[in-house]
Amino acid sequence: MLTTRVGEVVRWDNDRGFGFIAPDDGGSNVFVHVSDLAPGSPRPHVGDRVDYALERDDRGRMHAARVAVHGAVDERVAPVRRRPQRWSVIEMLAVLGFAVMLATGVLLYDMSIAIPLVVGLVSLVTAFAYADDKRRAEEGRWRTSESSLLLLCLLGGWPGAIAAMRWYRHKTTKASFVGAFWVTVFVTLIAFTLIAFPAAREAVITSLELMSGGA
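-> structure tokens emitted (215 positions)
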């Protein structure tokens, strides 16, 4: 029978679903994956006290198993619903500006109506992709790659990504991902500005011609 041990969570990456426990009886920190949580146990936070057992994986490495947070209520009995995060002002302005840009392109500059329809479809697909990645993280399953999520944003799906990120509280704290996400937003806005407004395209073409002529 496995011996129950006690320790404290000293690191927890919620997006990636793993962390480390410092044993009360000393020794090296113990790796714990979200799939090692006891049935019904909520995800831990740094500083939580936990009970756990030690097991070896297929490669002989020690890891925590049957991890249970002290004082936690079984989520199968009383599931906790976390409220969606509020959108930031920048996010609201970016989505509103994008919508106005597409509408103006269609109504005033003969841009094909198919373009905003495709953007809406890609945004919907992106929202589902983020929701699925959140579910996989919670279940400890293989995750959707960040490059795939960012590619969907680059194709115009970033409004759906913002909606999913805020609704599911997912991918909002990892600085490197958030930075890359806003790069895709910036690039997409520039690209669709050139698509929607002929004057912008002509200005860019003229500038490129002048630069090539000067060279």
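The first helix runs from residue 89 to 108.
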